[in-house]
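Practice problem: Nucleotidyltransferase-like protein
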Amino acid sequence: MTSHETVAWPRARTAVAVEDALARVGASVGELRELLGALLDEGRGYVVGSLAAGLGNSGSDIDVIVLCDRRSSDAPMLFFLGDTSVDLQYYNAGDPAATMAALPGERVRLAAGWCALGCAPAMTLQRRIGRWLNASPLDPAFPDIVDPAATPVAAAALVRGAVESLVLKIFAARTIGAAGLPSAAAWRRAGRALVEVLARASGELFIGEKWIVARAVRAGLDRGLARRAFGCSDERQLREILSAAGLSALGEPGVVELRAADGLERLELGATTWTLVGGRRAVPCDPAELVPEALETASAATVLDAVAEGVVVPALDRPELDERVRACAA
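Answer key — structure tokens:
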């Protein structure tokens, strides 16, 4: 089942009160306001990041964003409150609504939650959305950064981002194993990616891999399933876990294709055809032969070499992935 309507959704975890967030690093709202002064007067200030998400500790930074009329800044300004670093960054007040409007609106209900159809936002934007959804306002009168009506759309897009990461990691692990190389570590990475999918689908939308265990516990995931996913070491184990999670179709091959990297140049030197990668490194191969059809029939070792050399890049077949997501519909 797909939907364009507002639907029941596991609510994004509510951000902790700003006083409690700052207390984790021994700071207070008053101290933060005194440090940043007039810089906060530009607009609405929020504490974001792991502290606001209730995951930070005494060694965490304080991340502050201000929504204002000025254009978004490219990088944060750095301050120190005692030994704690404070990052302050400005965003245009219209950015959140514009970002939500650009996200895919169609979504499918999975056993664990809802997943968007269509292209997920880039990882940088996924992290930003996760921070917006877990923001603690410096003034309780400030509204949520993301309109609550848009939260289901944002959440489904973040789940889609985790699904895309999962299938790419499965492709990597499968290719490494097919090349005869040790692949247990790659399958563990895929298992962690599966936990990420389930955590986001359960409403844990702050994105940070270092906190994945805590987020899995907080999301209420089945502990046995999560433990198996974290310890997964081969394809058979991952397929069993995917089946238990109702996501078997995501483990089937055919979702990732290989395409020639951008900016390749063909050079003829004697009897050998070389490819110039990035304008500086020559690899002995012909880019004309690096079409997906040819690579699909190549050996796994050849594929790995081509990826490692930067001659080809894995690319998602998103329409096919949409069909796999639909196949997992609850």
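Discussion: The two ends are 8 Å apart (CA to CA). Students who identified this feature from the tokens alone can consider the problem solved.
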